[in-house]
Amino acid sequence: MARTRDGYAVIDFETTGLSPDKGSRAIEIAVVLVDEWTVSGTYQSLINPAQPIPPFITSLTGISNEMVRGAPKAAQIRSDILRLTQGRHIVAHNASFDRKFWMNEFANVDRVKEAFICTMHISRRLYPWTPNHKLSTLSSCHEIKVKGDFHRALADASATAELLLRIQEDLKSLTKEPVTAERLLRYQKTAIARAPSTRPRAINYTRIPQTSSADLPRRPRPKNTAPGPVAGKISNNQPQQSSRSSPYSGSSQPQKNDDSLWIILTIAAVLIFLFW
Known about the structure:
Blueprint: E1 8-15, E2 26-35, E3 38-46, H1 55-61, H2 65-69, H3 74-85, E4 89-92, H4 95-105, E5 117-118, H5 119-126, H6 135-141, H7 153-174, H8 181-188, H9 258-275
Parallel strand pairs: 1-4, 4-5
Antiparallel strand pairs: 1-2, 2-3
Helix pairs in contact: 5-7
């Protein structure tokens, strides 16, 4: 099969379940074409799975039985999909999932043993500083504008294509090697500890759920104990210090209790009185 020079087809499926081996079928497919470091075309189609869509999948994707009732079956769009992706390297986020449905719905003898480029595997090596490697998290960290809603094929494929472009850019900045498909395939198989990675960039966490102190369970404070330090931001990893004034502030000597100081002074006065 003739291969275009570093042409990519980024694919994404929405499905009735997790595995075609257990009877799950595709209900939507999207393909985003990437050429010369830019998006050059898109394709999207609902698919009639010839089986009911579980309510959970409908709530997750928004795709209902009514929406796919008049949609083409996978066999009807197979030739269009294969023609669109011919000669291109297939890319997906969590490619092991999409590859199963690709082989089940659009099996092609020429691509049975072909490895898919996985942006999730690459991001684990290139961006170890991200909280996780979900597509939504990576899109937020890299400020990728999502066109539509996650868990719809075209939105996910478009976000994956933009992530692929960012990966190409960052890999190019690490070394002087050309960022080819073969290099991406090698890199995603590299041991994580040995893979060169980028330094943390300015991260936008506005779309990543954060846990605040108000969400954490509060344990009752024991009676007859002094309150603990006030929670706050600690800069430069330095220990947080009390805001109360102390004769020992700024030194390494520990702060003494006022009662202990009075006891010591009283004992000293008695000793002076007895031995003067």
